[in-house]
Amino acid sequence: MSDNLDWFEFDKRHIWHPYSAIGADLPSYPVVSADGVRLRLADGRELIDGMSSWWCAIHGYNHPQLKRAIGEQLESMPHVMFGGLAHKPAAELGKRLIEITPGPLQTVFFADSGSVSVEVAMKMAIQYWHDKDQPEKQRFLTIRRGYHGDTFGAMSVCDPDAGMHALFSEILPKQLFVDAPSCYFGHPCKGDGAKALRKKLKKNHAQIAAVILEPIVQGAGGMRFYSAEYLKEVRSLCDQYGVLLILDEIATGFGRTGKLFACEHAGITPDIMCIGKSLTGGTMSLAATLTTEEVSNTISQGDPGLFMHGPTFMANPLACSAALASLELLLDSPWQERIKAIELGLQNGLAPCRELPQVDEVRVLGAIGVVELKRPVDMKQIQPCFVDAGVWVRPFGKLVYLMPPYIIDGDDLNTLTSAVVEVVERCPI
């Protein structure tokens, strides 16, 4: 294929993109390189990235430390099966993850992606109760407006009505849902904030394996921020009614909300935690599911005496090496101060949107800024407006949001927020 844009034309005719149609007349842009917080398009334009490539490229692009880690691992062993073999990058990464996550989480299962880590968590919960001689506990309870991934188990605990998976409702396992909490982050939950959850648990706990939640921030289901008090109450209710608590930290983990993990806002520990996205700094696909020794020992000592899951590329050495380098970069940096600076920049920069009649709400938490509109955006109209403004922002539904790389400076952040204000105010959406 030639060095011109023939490849791009092929792409449009033959290659699926996320939530897309082949041949759809929607804006798409050929990117040829990325460095720092900038994406370079084939026509020479550079865009400041406000998405961190769906929230994973927290150190920006092309970081030399991440490239070096991958290059060094590539020289010795790019991949080896994890069945019957072990390697140092996985052991070192597992040790590091156990050190930085809440104390009771002591065992690690490496997966390929966030959706798979959720599938693994759900299978762990079911197998745990099977080995506790309670095989009837096979359902999951969650809150509406959640999103946990696109595979079948993960889809079943996403919002069944307002989510993206209603088409598959008849084939998905039937889970239990309650309304999402109405108490905002930073505010108390008045009265019994988890009354609906309590009622559902009281009635159905004998068949519920686990409650699964995105802690504090509901991501792709609506970018809602809810009270830490609610999360505390959920933990207490899970203990009271004898169900496990799964926390999906795939989007919130590694500093995005101002805490290393969002559950730290509530000072609680889950029984099972899912992590992914920014784990490798956006370089390789890798996720993990961590759990307690109670869960892992019960499964390991039960019937059939092993956990029934094992991806082909589990614990890929390149990905593990990238994750170790990414964690070192993050934890050796003043990441808390950076997140606070981004939070302040988002608060100040997006504030003018509150005065616009088409805006319903503006909310900011850590390195997440959200402008919620009164009606859904038209992607054909709004995407080119952002590109023309020199930024990469990818809205969905009613939400125009920013989750920039942590390395972004004040000037670039100001350009991002100014573009959001300008596009929301002037562009047909």
TrEMBL record:
One of its GO terms (molecular function) is pyridoxal phosphate binding. The keyword ATP-binding does not apply. Its main location: cytoplasm. InterPro entries: Aminotrans_3, Aminotrans_3_PPA_site, BioA, PyrdxlP-dep_Trfase, PyrdxlP-dep_Trfase_major, PyrdxlP-dep_Trfase_small. Pathway: Cofactor biosynthesis; biotin biosynthesis; 7,8-diaminononanoate from 8-amino-7-oxononanoate (SAM route): step 1/1. GO terms for cellular component: cytoplasm. Its cofactor is pyridoxal 5'-phosphate. Pyridoxal 5'-phosphate binds at residues 114-115, 248, 311-312. Substrate binds at residues 54, 147, 277, 310, 394. Keywords: Aminotransferase, Biotin biosynthesis, Cytoplasm, Pyridoxal phosphate, S-adenosyl-L-methionine, Transferase. It is found in: Cytoplasm. It catalyses: (8S)-8-amino-7-oxononanoate + S-adenosyl-L-methionine = S-adenosyl-4-methylsulfanyl-2-oxobutanoate + (7R,8S)-7,8-diammoniononanoate. One of its GO terms (biological process) is biotin biosynthetic process. Homodimer. This is Adenosylmethionine-8-amino-7-oxononanoate aminotransferase. It comes from Candidatus Thiodiazotropha taylori.
